[in-house]
């Protein structure tokens, strides 16, 4: 099985913040892999734009170093690297002033698709949008890519959307969430809506509960000052986990069209109930015995009430999901790095095998990282004599196993999403009203925490989180799935 590469039309991609960490680690290596795959034509150009004082030759060296360091798992030739960096230019630019803008205008062409990647702080979005218009760098076909955070509450998200709307139509704005570019996330839609096997069972009548877990082994590290102003709720739940929840729970759209898909996701967000205080657990990782700092030490604030872990039970008030709880869990310095969605189906209404056969459930597991893939747990007879003993075994579809050597050719999230920007396909990007609705749900929860001032509970680093999170499930007669190393 070989993935089919469809070239995109000629483009100019300008990366504001081109010397930043995101460009170095993700954007530039992703573009290089698309170049190696033959998806970029000879006319396409990539232009870095930043405050740093470089010329194009120095920036090309920077790009080559970034690819050498972060293009892990993908082999390439020196000829490919040379061919790619030949397409690179650089402009030293002042986002708040006039320097560099006329030169940028000379380097880009309205005869090609023009995309501008805002890999900068949100405070600069308005200034960049304004200057793109002022210097003739935008037209009806121009696209802008906006990185998160999309505000820190509903009011700031609305203000940010309003600033962008002064200069661009909603159809030109691509709010990027790399989770939506993962192969398994898109396969989730294929599994749900392309197979008669699942969709009739995808409701409260047959699904006992759903678990969504995003666990990280790293702490906040050098991001302490930023993270302490956000926390797991703002940094992960309101965007990444919310998007996964929407794809799991949404109704089938009338067609696979960007607005049709996003309309259905928006309905899910608006149907989400605000969870009670008893249904939310917040935690902060503790220091380790060998001297690794605690969360409070990492953020240099012993009085911080910001969470590095959160677990919650949420409910969706609609006909499909009424009565089916969805459990969300994410945190830092946990046992292993993993992201997965587990759809746990109900037990059979009557077991003909008797109580000695145990409890058995079908579980569809969607793994986002590591080892992207899916498996469906089914109940079979344990081999051997001596009675009807039942065991659960997985029907496994790990991409690396199923695709073999071709698994390396599957584009990563940024590769796919950037190419979708060039194509003008917004299906995997968030719409403005979707972002605002997610904040409208999250704001009352955050405000309640800030009002009561209760500190998150400590938990051991490299564990599965606070004991209170286990009790959140245990009191419902359920258990979290194991975070596997």
TrEMBL record:
Domain annotation Glucose-6-phosphate dehydrogenase C-terminal: ranges: 189-481
Catalytic activity, as annotated: D-glucose 6-phosphate + NADP(+) = 6-phospho-D-glucono-1,5-lactone + NADPH + H(+)
Keyword DNA repair: no
Binding site for substrate: 178, 182, 216, 235, 332
Domain Glucose-6-phosphate dehydrogenase NAD-binding: 14-187
GO molecular function: glucose-6-phosphate dehydrogenase activity; NADP binding
EC number of this enzyme: 1.1.1.49
Pathway noted in the entry: Carbohydrate degradation; pentose phosphate pathway; D-ribulose 5-phosphate from D-glucose 6-phosphate (oxidative stage): step 1/3
Keywords for the protein's UniProt record, in alphabetical order: Carbohydrate metabolism, Glucose metabolism, NADP, Oxidoreductase
Residues the record lists as binding NADP(+): 17-24, 51, 148
GO cellular component, one term: cytosol
GO terms (BP aspect): glucose metabolic process; pentose-phosphate shunt, oxidative branch
Active-site residues from the entry: 240
Gene3D superfamilies named among the record's database cross-references: Dihydrodipicolinate Reductase, domain 2, NAD(P)-binding Rossmann-like Domain
Protein's UniProt keywords contain Ribonucleoprotein: no
Family classification: Belongs to the glucose-6-phosphate dehydrogenase family.
PANTHER family: GLUCOSE-6-PHOSPHATE 1-DEHYDROGENASE, GLUCOSE-6-PHOSPHATE 1-DEHYDROGENASE G6PD
Function according to Swiss-Prot or TrEMBL: Catalyzes the oxidation of glucose 6-phosphate to 6-phosphogluconolactone.
Record-given protein name: Glucose-6-phosphate 1-dehydrogenase
Organism phylogeny: Bacteria, Pseudomonadati, Pseudomonadota, Alphaproteobacteria, Rhodobacterales
């Amino acid at each position: 099985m070989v993935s089919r590469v469809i070239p995109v039309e000629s483009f100019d991609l300008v990366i504001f913040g081109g010397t930043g960490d995101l460009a170095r680690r993700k954007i530039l290596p992703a573009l290089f892999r698309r170049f190696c795959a033959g998806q970029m034509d000879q006319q396409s150009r990539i232009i870095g734009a930043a405050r740093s004082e470089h010329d194009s030759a120095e920036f090309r060296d920077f790009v080559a170093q970034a690819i050498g360091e972060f293009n892990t798992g993908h082999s390439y030739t020196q000829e490919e690297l040379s061919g790619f960096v030949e397409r690179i230019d650089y402009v030293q630019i002042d986002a708040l002033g006039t320097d560099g803008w006329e030169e940028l205008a000379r380097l880009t062409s309205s005869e090609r698709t023009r995309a501008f990647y805002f890999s900068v702080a949100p405070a600069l979005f308005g200034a960049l949008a304004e200057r793109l218009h002022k210097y003739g760098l935008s037209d009806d076909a121009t696209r802008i890519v906006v990185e998160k955070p999309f505000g820190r509450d509903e009011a700031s998200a609305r203000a940010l959307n309003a600033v962008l709307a002064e200069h661009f139509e909603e159809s030109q704005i691509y709010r990027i969430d790399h989770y939506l570019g993962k192969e398994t996330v898109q396969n989730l839609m294929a599994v749900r809506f392309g197979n008669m096997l699942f969709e009739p069972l995808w409701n409260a009548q047959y699904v006992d509960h759903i678990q969504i877990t995003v666990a990280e082994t790293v702490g906040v590290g050098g991001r302490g000052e930023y993270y302490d102003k956000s926390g797991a709720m703002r940094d992960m739940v309101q965007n990444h986990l919310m998007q996964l929840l929407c794809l799991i729970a949404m109704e089938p759209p009338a067609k696979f069209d960007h607005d049709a898909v996003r309309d259905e996701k928006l309905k899910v967000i608006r149907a989400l109930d605000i969870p009670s205080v008893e249904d939310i657990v917040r935690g902060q990782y503790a220091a380790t015995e060998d001297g690794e700092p605690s969360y409070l030490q990492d953020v240099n604030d012993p009085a911080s009430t910001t969470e590095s872990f959160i677990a919650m039970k949420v409910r969706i008030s609609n006909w499909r999901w009424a009565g089916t709880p969805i459990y969300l869990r994410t945190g830092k310095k946990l046992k292993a790095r993993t992201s997965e969605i587990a759809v746990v189906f109900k037990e059979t209404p009557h077991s003909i095998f008797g109580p000695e056969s145990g409890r058995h459930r079908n579980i569809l597991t969607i793994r986002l990282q590591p080892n992207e893939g899916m498996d469906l747990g089914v109940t079979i007879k344990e081999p051997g004599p001596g009675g009807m003993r039942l065991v659960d075994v997985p029907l496994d579809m790990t991409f690396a196993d199923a695709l073999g050597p071709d698994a390396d050719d599957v584009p990563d999230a940024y590769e796919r999403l950037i190419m979708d920007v060039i194509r003008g396909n917004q299906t995997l990007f968030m719409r403005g009203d979707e972002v605002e609705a997610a904040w409208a749900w999250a704001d009352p929860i955050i405000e309640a925490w800030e009002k009561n001032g209760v500190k998150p509970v400590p938990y051991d680093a490299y564990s599965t989180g606070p004991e209170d999170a286990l009790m959140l499930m245990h009191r419902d007669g359920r258990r979290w799935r194991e975070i596997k190393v």
